Please model this.
Amino acid sequence: MPDDLLLVGRVARAHGNRGQVIVNLDTDFPGDRFAEGNMLVVEHGGTSTTRRIASVRFHQGRPVIGLEGVADMNAARELAGLEFRIPVESLAALPEGTYYHHDLIGCVVVTPDGTAVGTVSSVEGDMGNTRLVVQRETGELLIPLVSDICTAIEPSAKRIVIAPPDGLLELNERGK
Model:
């Protein structure tokens, strides 16, 4: 998939007999991303197609969507496991001090004195309980994404400065 497309959800399974699918979310804005009429990019068998959302409702926090051109359960079953993406340029600006996960991935994490800690490989959790997954030579390190620890976040410079409390760098390390 091109780098200018961002993951917003994955098809969990077909739902019902009218071609609808249940989506596992990879976005903090499900109501915006999965609104009727929106376009989604679907990768299937090495090719990308764009599909319009024909119908949507939410069930237990997950969208149940119908796509144009997917009319029955058999067609919906073929979508199981596929990813839905949107173009980066369709993203809305976020308030100051908030970031899209994709903006943080690849950032180098350093301490205030410039000592390299590692590189952000992913972001886990959701609003209020988010952690940076940082790759180091000794394994993964989890760093809470809170202002007391992440003192400077500069996505355009691909850099995050952290002031880790004593023991954090050793305590949260995985995969030693």
The chain has a mean pLDDT of 89.
